[in-house]
Amino acid sequence: NGDGQSSHSRKVSNSTKIPVGTIRLVPPPHPPHPTPGSHHQADALDVDGNGRKDSTTIHDGREAYIKLGRLAVIPEFRKAGISKLLIETALTFAKDNPYEMMPQRDPSKIEAMRVESDGGVGVDWKGLVLVHAQVGVQKVWKRYGFEYDEAMGTWDEEGIDHVGMWKRVDVEPGRRKSRPFSISSPPLMAS
User: Which residue ranges have biased composition labelled Pro residues (predicted)?
Assistant: First the structure.
């Protein structure tokens, strides 16, 4: 209208905000891969290495990888693209922040680990992603580019059969991005 005021009013939502889905991204290090046919407790650390499977068809047993898990969408919101949004958001975050996918240690310790590990093998995340997929939703992960690893077999995790699936994403190697901050100058003194 002619008085400089906008004739469009902002629409306000009266909807209630509720979480409808979740996914978890776990940076390295990880416990050993489950042994096929075993009962594997999710997130259990195998300090003795009893369930150790050093390499699989896709994972050489040394390369650092991130793990996605606990993908869940409440039934009323399934088939609405929420899983895709969650998976893509988690992978984008990881790709954009590869330094954050490394063990959180003192920088000098990280450098020492790189030297001791053939240039960062097992230390630097280079884009390898694992999911322990429930057999019943294996197709969902395949739709998003994850590949079934036959060598990992099938195992029971929390009463549900699972398989290992991998995906590699492109990661730009680089250093941690600095976060800007301002340093204010002390006030000038009048003489």
Answer: 26-35
Contact 117, 123 (CB under 8 A): yes
Reported as a single tens digit per residue, the pLDDT across 30-51 is 888 888 888 766 655 444 444 4
Alpha-carbon dihedral angle through residues 136, 141, 145, 151, given to the nearest 10 degrees: -60
Domain positions in the chain are: 21-168
Scan for tokens 């939703």, then name that residue.
137
Q: Tell me: the pLDDT tens digits for 105-144?
A: 666 666 665 565 555 556 688 999 999 999 999 999 999 9
Question: What is the fold, at CATH topology level, of the domain defined by 21-168?
Answer: Aminopeptidase (3.40.630)
